[in-house]
Amino acid sequence: MSVRDDVYRALKEAKGEDESFSDVIERLLKGQEGEHSLYGLIGMVDEDEAANVREKAATFRESADEQMDRYS
């Protein structure tokens, strides 16, 4: 998952010492249950679909990195 730098900094500030970024996101989403449009998406994708999305995202990032390297 990619996030903007400002979002990363906000998550890092919200993160407890023993929390992962996933823990922070989950905590923030649970705190707004019923109010956040993304909350309803949790659990809608099975593990195979999620793995497929992660694989495609990694392939995309690698391709983008290669293209950026060519132009820098």
Question: Would you write up a description of this structure?
Answer:
- With 72 residues, the protein is an all-alpha fold.
- The chain has 2 domains: 1-41; 44-72.
- The protein has helices at 5-14, 21-31, 47-71.
- The two termini are 24 Å apart.
Compact summary:
This protein has 72 residues and is an all-alpha fold. The protein contains three helices and no strands.
Mean pLDDT: 81
Identify the quaternary structure here: single chain
Shape: flat
Query: What is the overall number of helices?
Result: 3
Number of strands: 0
Integer tally of domains: 2
Order of helices and strands: HHH
Defining traits:
2 domains
Helices and strands in order:
Layout: H1 5-14, H2 21-31, H3 47-71
